[in-house]
Amino acid sequence: MTSEIPKKFRRYVVAGGGTAGWMAAATLAKIMGDQIEVTLVESDSIGTVGVGEATIPPLLSFNRMLGINEAEFMRETGATFKLGINFENWKDVGEDYFHSFGHTGKDHWTSGFQHFWLSGKARGVAESFEDYCLEVVAGLQGKFAQLPDNALNYAYHLDSGRYAKFLRKIAEDNGAVRKEGKIDHVMLDPNTGHIAALKLESGETVKADFFIDCTGFRSLLMGQALHVGYDDWSHYLPCDAAVAIQTKSVEPAKPYTRAIAHDAGWQWRIPLQHRTGNGLIYCSRYLDKDAAYERLLSNIEGETLTEPNFIRFQTGARRKQWEKNCVTLGLSAGFMEPLESTSIHLIQRAIMRFMRMLPAQVISDADVKEFNDQTFEDMDKIRDFLIMHYCVTERRDSDFWRYCASMDVPNSVRQKIDLFEKTGRVFRKNDELFAENSWIQCMMGQGIMPQSYHPIADKMRDEEIEYFLQKIKSDVDSTAAKLPSHADFIRQYCAAP
Ligand code: FAD
Hints:
The chain has 497 residues and is an alpha+beta fold. The chain has a domain at 7-53 and 159-232 and 318-363: FAD/NAD(P)-binding domain (3-Layer(bba) Sandwich). Helices cover 36% and strands 19% of the residues. It is built from 15 helices and 21 strands. It has a seven-stranded mixed sheet. α1 packs parallel to α6 (160-173). The structure holds flavin-adenine dinucleotide. Residues 16-21, 41-43, 46-49, 51-55, 160, 182-183, 214-216, 218, 220, 242, 244, 279, 311, 313, 330-332, 338, 341, 343-344 line the site of flavin-adenine dinucleotide (FAD).
């Protein structure tokens, strides 16, 4: 018995060397080793999208899978820790809430902590819901440490250009080959319609058995060559443009992202070790490019380090994520604004899924269908979560927010909101990314207060529920008080020299 994969699926070409391309190349090369050949084609003259700095906790397991040393990775990418996102002006102007990566309070198997909190609130003994979550309290105090058993759940803010370089080294150390060159066109096999090769401007032809399209918004392979269409979701998520700029840091890095709503979208502020990332996401129907740039400049701190990066996008998903001998990842696969930092995560999920379904002798239609179904399930659920942020707003101060408050939303979103509003219940379905506590933090943060709660919460006597809530809060407070500042922790653990 030979351990070699049959010749047919030995050669993999990754088209594009942004975050998606290098994540894919590093994974394929590291996991499969010399069983396959990995070539990545990218063009320095085209460059990458140049944004994508906030992540969510599953990236830790991706990095671990690649054998990455965390402190080294953080030093190299100028990364900071992230405990969640502070949403400012989303419920209404002047009102904030924090969506953390942590868990709030303690659950009972019949019902989540929110039911006990609601019962305590009705009896006048509950503090703010956020006070019962360590990640929120530590985050807002600018504290951080790595605690045993992942008791402080975190992700990173990172410099995505540096992350791609970091991954490139891993890919190349494991045998992947980088080819500099501009793809001129994609050659199809006339009999099967499969991709046969990439023809570069230099005249060189790069052949492979399987292709991974990471060419960004251009989607040269899946979109342009294989003609796979795109589902437009902009009626649910109307923002379609961004302008990004980097600034010098003017304060110690906060361990959270800021998502600050404005009257035609929102703005991010992401603190790295060496600089701050800023960007304004907006809907071009309600704000033009110049006004967007002016608005961004009026709400940044510190000297600007870069020219503005103007980006147009269409929210949605490519209708097939795997077609013939091609899988698409990253921006070429679809786009949802970075409101919950989910794009790099979707790349990670799709790569891991593809690794489980690597073709052997033939491409199985069943694999292709399964891959597409699972990927759409991921995307749809994230889309629903993002829509919720907009549609439950109490803001009515601009045409943009009036549109969001009155737009039609998918039934799946409406059902989740209605259920919570009436009963306080949220159910996580099919391993969806955002679990109960995420929906609860955001829905409550946006002002949805359930009309009732599980009867089991009233089983606790007044003094019991008071003690229960107080004990959780005092544990959170005393743990947060002992944590070092985020800046001190970084200095000791992984500061760039
Ligand atoms: P790109 O970075 O665009 O890379 C495309 C690659 O293809 C490049 O190497 C390019 O040279 C190559 N290429 C293209 N055409 C050719 C050609 N003809 N020949 C050769 N090479 C070619 N994600 C997050 O997770 N968190 C965030 O906070 C976040 N913020 C974002 C903010 C904005 C405004 C935008 C637009 C996106 C954001 N994202 C974020 C998404 C994230 O930036 C992307 O998912 C990620 O960078 C992957 O991009 P990519 O590799 O698919 O595309």
